[in-house]
Every structure is written in C-alpha cells, then in structure tokens.
C-alpha cells in the first residue's frame, strides 16, 4: 500500500497492457456460454453499460459510489476492492483480459473518495469501520450473496477485505487477500529491516535525509523512490513501460484519503496515519470462508507473512507469484491469473 501521491507529479509516460492468448469460454468449462455471459438484456444497468452509481449512507450524509459490472454469471460475481487508500479501480483493468473468457462476472468499484465516486472533504469519513459498512451497502445494492459473492482485495483493499470478512463472512462465497499482510507493524518491520537495506547505500542515505526532514514532495525524493524502489517492489517494469491504466490510477489518487489513513512516507506508515497500528493476526482464525492469499517474491510485503495468512484462516490456500511485486496482476500475470481463476473455479465447483 505504498505511497501513490508521488506519481501525480512525475508520471508522464504511457505503457501498454500485457496480453496473453486464451481459449474462449465454453459451456463445459465455465457452465455459461459466451452469449449468456455478454447478454445484458433485462439488466437494470444495460442503459449505462454496466455502470451504477450506488447511494451510500454515512454518518455525514448520503453519497454515491461508482461501480461497473462486467459480464453475467449468476454463480460467480467478484467485487474488486482497490488499494491506496484513495486509488481507483483502474489498477484492475487488466482483469478484463482474463476474467471474461473464463465466464467470471466481476465488478469494478471506486470506493468513496476515489476518482469516479463522490469525493467529500470531511476527513472523518476516511475510517476503516465506515469503509466496511460501505462495502456491505454496495454488496446489497448489487445483489451479491453467499451463493455467488467473491470479495477480492489488494493492498489496502486486502485490509478492507479482511475486516469485511471478520464482520460479514456469512455473505461470502470466497475471499481473496492479495498482496497484503495482516499487521501494519510487521509491514513496517519488513520495510525497515529487509527492503530498505537492499537499496544502494548512497541512495538509501539520500532518501532517508528527505524522510527525516519530512520533505516527501521533493521531486528528487520522488525520483529516487520511483527509480530505485517502485521499479523493484511495486511494478517490476521500467517506468516508461508502465501500463496506461496504472498511470491513470496514480494520477487520479485522492491524497486526502491516502495521507489520512496511510501517511505521506514511502517507507511504511508514519505520523498519525489511522492505519498505523492495524493488526488482525489474532482474528484470522475466525474466518471460515474459503480464502486465497496471494503474495509475490518482490513485494513490499513479506511473502512469508502472506503465506502464513493461508495457514491461519480455517480454509486457506496460498498463491505465490515468483516474478511479481506489489502489482503482480501486471508483472506476473501468468502465475497471478492462473492461480486466482483456479481458486474461484475450485470454490464454485466444490473441489476447493
């Protein structure tokens, strides 16, 4: 859940999405035909191409959040929780290259405060329990239930997914926790003791000088982070090859949400960020719904801790992306999507 604010000032490049040839779906392997999957006849969102602006009740009044449905499958519906906090659904646009041919219905979703949804200025709204209730309201509005509802959360979205499952797992068919550990203090420890020392000594020294001065918006600091840290642990590609979808998402970040919950630093969560002490390690044993934990070899998060999540929940599986980093849906697509789709189908057909 590394700092995305910096990209708003330095990312001017357009990349291209990786593509991989797949066989089309068939009745035998997805229990739904191509025609059925793409038939929107009678759907209440046909007029808007799958988009719904869902009203959300909050302690500060009613607002609307943006969702977009992709495909039709009454048995499999995946709601995607983006990272950040304050990012957008755009980081998942590559899912459109893999889920449709597998017959998987899925939903893009911008959480309250994110670019395509309402963006109120009251900082008290950027509160974890309130976000959990928002997800529950979105679930209800979309008609998702225990017979079809898979919740996928990556990074901050993984925090939100864990907290949702701990309160509302009776509504879930499957849970996916992607690229997120169960403890922010352990995330900070891994950043300080494992990842930071891997940087060239002179680079780390210069970065920490800016950190110590809290000069997080300095262009030199941002450039050092992107070139030496992000291209190794966020998305393992040269900046000029980053997908356009990622660049747009970074550009659309809401810094008010991000700084309130995550803080301004690149190296973990500092200051008075509301997520600084978050930890649910002792609660994971209460999650009984089938759960997939996804980790990556070069992630900002410790892959061993993400593997541990799969052993701590009651019905878990771990997916390791050996070539991936924090955005392994882009830099290790072959392993990422193969494992994710297998989990969804195994749960669906009862073989998990």
Automatic annotation (TrEMBL):
**Gene3D superfamilies under this entry?**
alpha/beta hydrolase
Give every AB hydrolase-1 domain span.
78-180
Which portions of this protein are annotated as coiled-coil regions?
Answer: none
Q: Does the keyword NAD apply?
A: no
Q: Tell me the first and last residues of the signal peptide.
A: none
Asked if the keyword NAD belongs to this entry, the reply reads no
Q: What's in the keyword line of the UniProt record?
A: Hydrolase
Q: Name one GO molecular function term.
A: hydrolase activity
Q: Which PANTHER family match?
A: MONOACYLGLYCEROL LIPASE (PTHR43798)
Q: Which family does it belong to?
A: Belongs to the peptidase S33 family.
Q: What is this protein called?
A: Proline iminopeptidase-family hydrolase
Protein source organism: Flavivirga spongiicola
């Amino acid at each position: 859940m590394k700092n995305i604010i910096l990209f708003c000032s330095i990312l001017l490049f357009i990349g291209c999405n990786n593509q991989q040839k797949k066989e089309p779906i068939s009745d035998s392997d997805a229990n739904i035909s191509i025609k059925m999957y793409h038939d929107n006849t009678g759907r209440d969102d046909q007029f808007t191409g799958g988009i719904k602006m869902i009203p959300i009740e909050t302690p500060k009044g009613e607002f609307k959040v943006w969702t977009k449905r992709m495909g039709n499958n009454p048995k499999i519906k995946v709601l995607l929780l983006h990272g950040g906090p304050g990012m957008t659904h755009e980081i998942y646009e590559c899912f459109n290259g893999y889920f449709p041919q597998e017959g998987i219905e899925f939903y893009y979703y911008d959480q309250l405060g994110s670019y395509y949804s309402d963006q109120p200025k009251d900082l008290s709204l950027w509160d974890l329990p309130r976000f959990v209730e928002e997800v529950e309201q979105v679930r209800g509005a979309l008609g998702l239930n225990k017979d079809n509802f898979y919740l996928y959360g990556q990074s901050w979205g993984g925090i939100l997914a864990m907290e949702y499952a701990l309160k509302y797992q009776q509504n879930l068919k499957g849970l996916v926790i992607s690229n997120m550990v169960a403890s922010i203090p352990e995330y900070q420890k891994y950043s300080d003791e494992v990842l930071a020392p891997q940087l060239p000594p002179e680079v780390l020294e210069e970065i920490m000088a800016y950190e110590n001065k809290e000069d997080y918006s300095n262009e030199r600091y941002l450039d050092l982070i992107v070139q030496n840290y992000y291209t190794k642990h966020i998305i393992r590609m040269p900046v000029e090859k980053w997908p356009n979808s990622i660049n747009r998402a970074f550009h659309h970040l809401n810094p008010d949400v991000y700084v309130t919950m995550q803080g301004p630093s690149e190296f973990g969560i500092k200051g008075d960020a509301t997520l600084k002490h978050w930890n649910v390690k002792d609660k994971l044993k209460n999650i009984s719904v089938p759960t997939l934990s996804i980790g990556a070899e070069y992630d900002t998060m410790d892959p061993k801790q993400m593997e541990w999540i799969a052993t701590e929940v009651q019905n878990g599986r771990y997916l390791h992306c050996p070539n991936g980093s924090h955005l392994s849906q882009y830099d290790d697509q072959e392993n990422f999507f193969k494992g994710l789709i297998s989990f969804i189908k195994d749960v669906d057909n009862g073989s998990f």
